Amino acid sequence: MKIGILGAGQLGRMLAISGYPLNHQFGFLSTSNNEPSSLLGRMFINDDKSLVDFADVITFESENTNVEKVREINKNTPVFPSEKSLFISQHRGREKALFNQLNIPCAPYQIVNSRQDLKQAVKNIGLPAILKTTTEGYDGKGQFFIRKHNQISKAWESLSGVELILEGFVNFKRELSLIAVRDMNNNHKYYPLVENIHHNGILRLTIAPAQNISSQLQKTAKYYMQSLLDEMNHVGVLTIELFETENGLIANEIAPRVHNSGHWSIEGVNTSQFENHIRAITNLPLGDTTPRHNFCAMINIIGTVGNINTVLKLSNTHLHLYDKQERIDRKLGHINITANSQIELDASIKKLKAFLP
Ligand code: AMP
């Protein structure tokens, strides 16, 4: 099939790499010819019509995709995931309303449109709390952590101008995520919970599967995911980010797409998140999501590429670069590590410590 992707970043690139062995072809809608996906298929520069003419099915690589555009395209060409998944997951308030509707625990929240709203929200929710933009935030951008009342004005001044949301602070032990995929016939496959370690709001290290996860916790996360997939009639990969707390799991946000915390699945799992997304949207049977190794990790390469020979010399690591120019805080690639024991995994991460903050 011919698959059109709205966007041409590293996620589109890795989707195409996983889709070519299945005999699919790819086209990308982009604003420039200098993107990670540029050499991986036909490029349509600001030309929605030609992409739609090219494609049998369309998907997107970002939740910041324009909903009206997807609605328009979907009149003639199928777009997966659904417009509903996109509409909900691009807005923190709509996500949290859905969590509440499905009895998925999440932080208390309130939408903030004025200084007065913010004061009232702080009164209702208490401090510490986090003020965030309702849309467009990523890698911790568009957020202000309010610890004390005298920071309220500064928080308002630094973010006002767009719709905001105040969220209660969650005192978490670990950050986890769960990735799953649903096909057009309501079949689901789940990847194991993974642990995500961030620095300055950017994911740096994923441990997969997350260690010391009880079967009850995995079951609960799967149950939350299942209700989200079914409620949104989602087709494709869906990710949920979770906080692990003393009192169980608290949902943070969802992403209607392949996710950075699932990159380990390229070598770590029988079928990667990328291949399963492609299988789901092209109506092929979903692939097995059993890990090939019990101890995997993914290290993001951020800002500068560094000494890749260190990676290439190791027998249990795989380098993935995205053909991007070096720039501060930019995701340029990642390293996947597969190991047969915790000791081997720890030793490998240690050898790659130059890539970690
Ligand atoms: P987000 O963009 O919502 O994923 O937020 C980026 C990071 O900020 C998360 O990975 C957490 O480390 C932290 N964070 C976000 N929301 C909260 C919250 N309500 N309570 C505690 N930490 C949070």
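^ adenosine monophosphate complex. The mean pLDDT is 97. Residues 107, 130, 137, 140, 167, 169-170, 175, 198, 201, 241, 252-253 surround adenosine monophosphate (CB under 6 Å).
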